[in-house]
Amino acid sequence: MKKVLIKNMVCNRCKTVLQQEFKNAKIPVETIELGEIVFSNIDTITYEKINEIITRNGFEIIIDEVALIVEQVKSYLISELSNEDMLNENLSDLISKHIHKDYSVISKLFSCNEGLTIEKYFIRLKIEKTKEYIQMGNLSFSEIAHALNYKSGSHLAKQFKAITGMSMSSFKSLQSWDRQPLDKIV
Q1: Is 36 within 8 Å of 15 (Cβ atoms)?
Q2: Which of 82, 137, 158, 164 gives the lowest tally of CB atoms within 10 Å of its CB?
């Protein structure tokens, strides 16, 4: 078996796309998870085909250990964005447990590689998710704050304004929303 680690694979749709591509190419997949795919017995030619499929679909195979850790942090935070368990534990503890490394090491690698802290990255993710919720229009601002594990709506409102330069109400009234895909935040 061969485990291949994938950059920018951050949602179930990503998994579905790659699963279908490998099925069409008759390349057997053992398991597929966010950020990793396990193949059974692949040779060099098959590996080249796998790389071509991954690249063609906007993903990238991770070889560098630092890039691997950074991508694991990003994938984990995106997948846990609305998880209520995030309220009960420190972000640093959750990341450490998930990646099985000391948080200070993870944090330093992430900051050096991405140019911002894990906490600031997570706030940006939450703001993009807030934009999505506002655009969908079926939750109030306080319900959005609750869905994203903010202790209060005012805390979310302050962070939203600090990041976007406008209030959530102003954003809601825009004709076209400026949103970024979660995997393109940094």
Answers
A1: no
A2: 137
